[in-house]
Amino acid sequence: GFLRGHYAQATGHFGQALALYRRSGDQTGEAHSLNNLALVELRQGDYPQATSHLRRALALGRQTDDRNCQA
Q1: Alpha carbon 7 to chain centroid distance?
Q2: CA-to-CA distance for 59 and 34, rounded, in angstroms?
């Protein structure tokens, strides 16, 4: 996984999950996928993109009352 430096692979998998959650209308899954993408981006030093994904995840967490995405 990405904790071992496989960032491209992790980004691909999290991106696929994000697309599937969006297609199915699962906002909680979308928020978790955005959080996961942000973790990879933070490790890579891509702070602007990570910030964008975290803000979107937070907004979705608030909409769905998912406290895991709000913490």
Answers
A1: 13
A2: 11
